[in-house]
Write a structure and sequence with these properties.
By secondary structure, the chain is of the alpha+beta class. 54% of the residues lie in helices and 10% in strands. The chain has a 5-stranded mixed β-sheet.
Length: 220
């Protein structure tokens, strides 16, 4: 082997060795959580957050999507609802709320079926507001008698609703939401996601700030 070939071979080996060591000793990198996203939480996919069957309040094509995992029998959900309405009123063209059902209480499934029956009658929001207002009278009541009374007061055709609320499509929707609740790891309600980022601190101000951040980053 002549001297030139020897030098070239040593150079190639050195480069290979350097590259291997550089790879092995590279600093660990971790994704940077988005603002408001819970550190260490598994990132849900878009599909597990938004389903085509889910009720949507606000413009369907709004650029900011708030997903609320919601139990109609949850007192916290009732307490948050006025703030959700304020946000929708403040940003009527920019924010939509996708409702995902969670069944943590007695009577939750009955009221979810009632809400879906109301949606078929074009009365989702009026019935939702009515049963939330009346929630102290039916909370954890398996028969949700007071919720039915409130829904009828909001215009629900009870006979038609009771005839439709147990059909296969509504049962499939409930089962699909239950699967996503487990997949995302929902342990309490309400739980909010703003454009896919989970709200860490549950307060109206944090929800509002997360939405404003989403709107700001969208414009940048």
């Amino acid at each position: 082997m002549n001297r030139r070939l020897l030098v070239l071979s040593v150079s190639v080996v050195s480069i290979v060795v350097f590259t291997i060591f550089a790879f092995l000793l590279r600093p660990a990198t971790e994704p940077v959580p988005q603002a408001g996203q819970e550190a260490g939480a598994g990132a849900p996919t878009a599909a597990t957050l938004v389903r085509f069957h889910s009720p949507v309040i606000g413009r369907f094509d709004a650029p900011v999507t708030v997903v609320e995992f919601f139990d109609p029998s949850c007192e916290g959900c009732r307490a948050f609802y006025p703030y959700v309405k304020q946000i929708l009123s403040k940003y009527p063209s920019d924010v939509r709320v996708v409702m995902r059902y969670v069944l943590f209480h007695k009577g939750s499934e009955e009221t979810v079926r009632m809400l879906e029956a109301a949606r078929r009658q074009g009365l989702f929001e009026p019935v939702l507001e009515a049963i939330l207002e009346a929630q102290p009278d039916w909370h954890d009541d398996p028969t949700v008698t007071a919720a039915w009374r409130a829904a009828v007061g909001a215009g629900l055709d009870e006979t038609r609703a009771r005839a439709e609320m147990h059909d296969a499509a509504i049962s499939a929707l409930i089962k699909a939401d239950e699967a996503d609740v487990n997949a995302v790891g929902i342990k309490g309600t309400p739980t909010f996601f703003v454009n896919g980022a989970r709200l860490v601190k549950l307060s109206p101000q944090d929800l509002s700030s997360a939405i404003e951040y989403a709107m700001q980053t969208r414009k940048e």
